[in-house]
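Quick one - inputs below.
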Amino acid sequence: MEPFTKLTAVAVPIDMSNVDTDQIIPARFLALPREQAKLGLFHDIRRDAAKQLKPDFPPNRPEYAGAAILVAARNFGCGSSREHAVSVLKDNGFRAFVAPSFGDIFHNNCYQNGVLPIVVGEERAATLRALLAAQPGATMTVDLAAQTLAGPDGIVDKFPIDSFRKDCLLRGQDDISFTLGHAAEIAAFEAAHGRELSWL
Amino acid sequence: MAEALSLFEKIWRRHVVIARPDGYTLLHVDRQLLHDGSWQAFEKLAARGIKMRRPDRHFATPDHFTSTAAESIDAIDDPIRRRVVDAIVANTAREGVQLFGLGDPRRGIVHVVGPEQGITQPGLLMVCGDSHTATHGALGALAFGIGASEVAHVMATQAIWQKKPKTMRITVDGRLGPGIVAKDVILAIIARIGAGGGVGHVLEYAGAAIRGLSIEGRLTLCNMSIEAGARAGMVAPDEKTFAYLEGRPFAPKGDEWRKAMDFWRGLPSDPGAMFDAEVTLDGDAIAPMVTWGTSPEDAAPVTATVPDPSSYSDAVKQEGVRRALDYMGLKAGQKLTDIAVDRVFIGSCTNARIEDLRAAAAVAKGRRAVVRAWAVPGSGLVKRQAEAEGLDRIFRDAGFEWREPGCSMCVGMNGDTVDAGQRCASTSNRNFVGRQGPGARTHLMSPAMAAAAAVTGRFTDVRKLGAA
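Output:
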């Protein structure tokens, strides 16, 4: 997993709450190899009934080309646990998501893929989306070590992140290699727990 | 005096392997359930050259990608889907994991199979790479959905890192009216707290109306916790739970049963246990519910009308409702009972158990479906039981299709889909844009309500349907 440290990039707004993972990547793309699944990003919601790209859906607009930051409304990534929702966004260049809240499983899946979910207040998220809509192509800067997010208005917000998740992202370390280092504790726990719940 | 603990807290504490000062906790996983979508996790493990730590704590069954036309691999008409279903056979054989495969009557939707086999038990910590894993909380387990990387992590370590969630108790007092079932209760809860209302929380459902639900009703209830944003939902185990479990294949037997019962009886939340949030609903006031929009929070009593976007104070929600009504082809003010349907789907991990099929069959009996309607049992054993009771006959006589077990039309990834622009009365759990197929319009409701829609061709208050 590549480390996440600092990122300055074009940010694209999506002004919809409860964007579920079926909208991020429809189910019919899930069994496909990663290269093809990538083409499924926002597949259905970015098109109209005639299957044409909607010009008013920001990720369709050329001004936002190369965006690596996505600013969403509340409960982004709710619904299904499909990790594709994160990996397909990543494969399309996104490295950080900003929203007032995220679906819990999506939120955890981000950390497993070296992608940073940033929670900001409801009002600040709305302001950022409005600014990005008014100045398409504007950039934002994320500094993970400092835990800061700079908006296109130059205002810098501090954001919270658990130190465990922060360390793993900064180092590019995933959970498996970290946990395997604790094999002795796991074995000791299993021995005691196995005596208590002996019927399992 | 001993500290008053919640059901959640008791299970959490018993599973802590490592507690870090920053709040992250490594929890032991008692049982992980796998399905045909878990191929990614097997690949991730294989790519690192790691074997599963405890294959004996894993149970697998294909459900997402299987065909409901026939119980065979050849019935899957797409080579990519066939490969995914084949993969679980090879992966579980290599690792030595118990598989309920195609042709095994125990095969079915993973969240139907777990409780049915007695794999799901009170006090266990269970995970699965599927967001509807909360289902298993109905038996008093702490169960939640995880992503593919985390599935691989559990395979490798039999443990998972979690930050402790907050707790929310949802108390439904009173008594449910005639014809009101668990599906109506959970849709009413989600309409109240919102699709994000439970984010970061584990829900405990309590109160007289919840105690009164059967185990199958509680499974429906907990199943949709994720649609309120909560990864886990639980009901304290009681005599109904123990009666349900006794004698099931993977439930403890003899002395072990008695030992387990001692443990299970200590699990319910202590009087005075504290919750981070409390929500109360009046069970008597819950009506049959139907969704009108593209989020499960867009639910209303069937007696209501389609809402006006301008009636919402929040601008993002206003725009969301406008977009939802446009997608759904509905107009503000339309009576829900005036909405005609094209398809009916009775099935999914939410509502494909025997009681669900009985409830739908009771409505279908002696009537005739006027639109294309499917009944898809949740497992081979549910199907067998339904056939022993003659329910398949009732459905077929009423013009329904009686299919093989699987996730089917809930999930739009196995060939069972609703056509663009078609409106489906569905007992599943998600009315998301495109969930049942591109352009499909999904309305969530109970099995009896879906059957009523099948025989009348429109949303119908099942309480007013009368005798056939």
